[in-house]
Amino acid sequence: MTALRWSVLTAFACLVGLAGGCGKSSSDAPAAADAAGPAGTAAATGLASSSVRWVAAKPASDLSLFDVPAVVRASPQAAAVVTPPVRARLLEMHVKPGDQVELGQIVASVQLPELVQAAATWHSSLDRQAAYKRWLGELRTQRSLGMARSSDVFDVESKLADLLAVQAGAEAQFQAAGLKVADAHRLGRDGAWPLRAPLAGVVHSVEGALGAAIEPGQALAHIVGREPGRIEVRLAQALPDHGQLQFVAADGVAIDLQATPTATAVDPIDGALLAWYEPKQPQPLAAGLRGRLRVAGLPGHVVEIPTRALLRRHGKAFVMAQKDEKTVEWAVTVLAMLGPVALVEGLPPGTQLAAEADHAQPAHEITPTGQGD
After folding, report:
1. Among 295, 289, 215, which residue's Cα sits nearest to residue 256?
2. Is the CA virtual torsion 237, 243, 244, 248 positive or negative?
3. How far apart are CA 74 and CA 11, in angstroms?
4. Which residues of the chain have pLDDT under 70?
């Protein structure tokens, strides 16, 4: 009985203790909630702040930002084709691609049937003219003695005029082909004619097979010369005024260019800005040579920032920057925007700014100047 009574008392004491524990947990819950409240608010605030990605403005030292395709556009005298003046037959090619040629060097030998015929006509006309001139002289003498009629003299004079017309026609064929009358003697001997390089340069390509018929204007060889030229570039927008422009050719040779283009134009097809630059020191350049246009020597105050960090309002540009532990709108001058990167002035290197301006809210309005005061 005593053991039973002790068990009942023990059970009752446990129940009282559990009741007290539950009461304590219930009464402490509001305090715990109150303690957790500020911490939760801070966490939420931290999450909101972390949604703004901050980056530092850094000096624009990456020259590849201004690395754009460029090509040499030389004068028409910097490239040439070797072609027969009239229909021809290829007898021999004296050069092959990659050969260096000098001005006037023989590139190909061709036969010019049309000019060979013109040369034969020209020679025949001269011989017949000589005969008719002798005959005309005799007729005039006989007419003075009453032994020949004036109509006979007139008939010979007419035939002589026809021969002179034939001679003039043959000479016109030579002139149209760029040949001289004296060249008719050579064509009359062997019919072959040399085609010469119109400029000094490198043979880029050759065409045609031996014995093949070549039409007028059909190129037998392409020659690339080296003449002073201009550098053509295609830009999304004008280059900044700062820095030194350089054309870096495919072989790595860098050529300094004038800071100001000689001319600009807008391509109506894609809206690209075309600009032409001349070397500071005139020098021969191969027509069609490709390379890259780069900008060197940018001032130290020019910084590089994300393009999405820019805001525009009333024709001015701003960034959301940190100043005195506050987020402010900071006025900047945009020099260039090259895809995801923009180059600006007025923002000290190292300044923290929002990578995406739309995600930051300013504490107050624009800074008095954009120079960091």
Report:
1. 295
2. negative
3. 108
4. 1-50, 61-66, 188-190, 237-238, 240-243, 296-298, 362-373
- 330: closest CA among 293, 365, 288? 365
Token pair in block for residue 114: 């049309």
301-359: CATH topology is: 2.40.420
Q: Which CATH architecture has domain 66-76+223-296?
A: Beta Barrel (2.40)
Residues 6+ apart with CB under 8 A from 8: none
Say what the pTM is.
0.50
Lookup: tokens for 199: 């400029």
- What is the rounded CA–CA span in Å between residue 96 and residue 90? 15
Q: Which residues pair with 131 in a beta bridge?
A: none
* Burial (CB count within 10 angstroms: exposed 0-12, middle 13-18, buried 19+), residue 190: exposed
Domains 66-76+223-296 and 301-359 share a fold: no
The Cα 285–Cα 9 span in angstroms is 111
pLDDT score of 66: 66
pLDDT for the residue numbered 287? 75
Q: What distances in angstroms separate CA 112 from CA 171, 175, 179, 206, 222, one per listed residue?
A: 15, 14, 12, 19, 20
Q: Tokens representing 42?
A: 């801070």
Alpha-carbon span 122 to 179, nearest angstrom: 14
Q: Token pair 């027509």 is at which residue?
A: 287
| C-beta separation of 353 from 321 below 8 A | yes
Alpha helices by DSSP H, listed for 83-190, are 113-144, 150-176, 183-190
CA distances from 221 to 77, 82, 96, 215, 241 (A): 16, 5, 9, 14, 43
CA–CA distance, 271 with 292 (Å, rounded to integer): 20
d(CA 274, CA 262): 11
φ, ψ of residue 72 in degrees (nearest 5): -80, 125
Q: Which residue do the tokens 């972390």 mark?
A: 50
Instruction: Please state, in angstroms and rounded to a whole number, the distance separating the CA atoms of residues 227 and 142.
Output: 67
Sequence spans of domains, the chain = 66-76+223-296, 77-214, 301-359
